[in-house]
Amino acid sequence: MVKNALTKVLGLTALLVGLTMGGSAMATNAHDFSFDAIEGGPLPMSKYKGKAVLVVNTASFCGFTPQYDGLQALWKDYEDKGLVVLGVPANNFGAQEPGSNQDIKQFCEANFSVDFPLTAKESVVGGDAHPFYKWAEEALGADNVPKWNFHKYLVDADGNLVAAFPSAVKPQSKELTSVVEKTLAKK
C-alpha cells in the first residue's frame, strides 16, 4: 500500500516537473494542462472535463480579428450543448497582440462583446510555446501547428485532440461546425 502511494506521488511529481519544464511528453490529454486566466489565477483545462473546447490563438490587430464575432456567436450557439471557446492571446505573428492582458480583455469586450474565457497572453509556437501547444504539435504533427493568428484546435469531452483548423477557417463555417456537432454528439 505504501509502495502504491509512493509510486503515485512519484508519477505525479514527474508529470508536474515535465509540464513545468515545458515538456509535454508525459501528458495524456488536454486536461493535463493549465493556462493562466486573463483576469489572473489558474485556468486548468481539467475544468472543462465533459465539454468540448475550441482553443484559438487570438490577436487584436490582425486581419482575422473580426473572427472574434464568429467565435462569440459559436460560443452562444453551442455553449448549452457543451462547447467552450477558449481564446489564447498570442503575439507570435506580426506582433499583432502587443497589449497587456488588461488591454486585451478590454479590447475584446468593447469591440466584440466577448464573454467566452480568455487566457493570459501566451506563446503558441517555438521553443517558448505553452506546453499545450507543444503537446498539440506532438499529437497532430508539424503541419497542424499555428501558422498565424486564429488557428483553432478542437478538444473533445475526454481531452483528446479531434481536429485542427487553420486561420482562414471561419468559426461558423460548415467545415468547423460539422466537426463541433459530431464531437458534441459523442459526449
List the helices and strands and how they pair.
Elements: H1 2-20, E1 34-36, E2 42-44, E3 52-58, H2 67-78, E4 83-89, H3 101-112, H4 131-140, E5 152-155, E6 161-165, H5 174-185
Parallel strand pairs: 3-4
Antiparallel strand pairs: 1-2, 3-5, 5-6
Estimate nothing, just give the exact number of structural domains. 1
H/E element sequence? HEEEHEHHEEH
CATH C-level class is Alpha Beta
CATH architecture: 3-Layer(aba) Sandwich
Average pLDDT works out at 89
The fold-level CATH name is Glutaredoxin
Task: Report the principal-axis shape.
Answer: globular
Number of contiguous helices: 5
- Our Rg estimate from Cα atoms comes to 17 Å
**SS-derived structural category:** alpha+beta
Uncertain stretches of 5 or more adjacent residues: 1-23
Distance between the termini: 35 Å
Give the full name of the CATH homologous superfamily. Glutaredoxin
Tell me the helix content.
25-40%
Largest sheet: 4 strands, mixed
**Strand residues, percent:** 15-25%
Count of distinct strands? 6
Strand order of the largest sheet: 4-3-5-6
